Amino acid sequence: MIGDDIDGAGRRGTASAGDDPQARAAEMRRVALGMLGRREYARAELQQRLTRRFGEDAPVGALLDWLEAQRFLDDTRYAGMLVRSRIERGQGPLRIRQALQQNGVSNLLAEQALAEAGCDWFALAAETCRRRFGAGPPADLKDKARRLRFLQYRGFTADQCFEALDGDGAAFD
């Protein structure tokens, strides 16, 4: 709306909190809790969004520490949620690990979340391939190569891809 951008900084809802540090902190907390109420965030991802909205000088680190202490923000919970949702979408471990790293989750937490998922990656690769291309075997080498590229793009390892295509782990015949 027209009156929302009073401070001229292009940020809605922060005009009254611009001068008073307590009001600004309350506004940051309100925004962060609203974001976390909609979905899980990794600490780095939420920090980036809040810094973009409230500026570099905003005390975002202290707010994130408070959110973690209250258990509203938890990278372990976020990693588990992301792994489960990506497995349901038929993505492999390489692609999931990359998504976790892009969202600022540590390598240790990423590996832990992937291990706790207990997924049979070979079966998931075969199911993903079957859903996309049907139950039949590849018609020719060109079709097999197309299926292999698809599975690699989805984030499966070479072993998982070949097992899904051949069922016996054999390479291109």
Automatic annotation (TrEMBL):
<feature type="domain" description="RecX third three-helical">
    <location>
        <begin position="122"/>
        <end position="165"/>
    </location>
</feature>
<dbReference type="Pfam" id="PF21981">
    <property type="entry name" value="RecX_HTH3"/>
</dbReference>
<feature type="domain" description="RecX second three-helical">
    <location>
        <begin position="74"/>
        <end position="114"/>
    </location>
</feature>
<feature type="region of interest" description="Disordered">
    <location>
        <begin position="1"/>
        <end position="24"/>
    </location>
</feature>
<dbReference type="InterPro" id="IPR053925">
    <property type="entry name" value="RecX_HTH_3rd"/>
</dbReference>
<dbReference type="GO" id="GO:0006282">
    <property type="term" value="P:regulation of DNA repair"/>
</dbReference>
<comment type="similarity">
    <text>Belongs to the RecX family.</text>
</comment>
<keyword id="KW-0963">Cytoplasm</keyword>
<comment type="function">
    <text>Modulates RecA activity.</text>
</comment>
<dbReference type="InterPro" id="IPR003783">
    <property type="entry name" value="Regulatory_RecX"/>
</dbReference>
<protein>
    <recommendedName>
        <fullName>Regulatory protein RecX</fullName>
    </recommendedName>
</protein>
<dbReference type="Pfam" id="PF02631">
    <property type="entry name" value="RecX_HTH2"/>
</dbReference>
<dbReference type="InterPro" id="IPR053924">
    <property type="entry name" value="RecX_HTH_2nd"/>
</dbReference>
<dbReference type="InterPro" id="IPR036388">
    <property type="entry name" value="WH-like_DNA-bd_sf"/>
</dbReference>
<dbReference type="GO" id="GO:0005737">
    <property type="term" value="C:cytoplasm"/>
</dbReference>
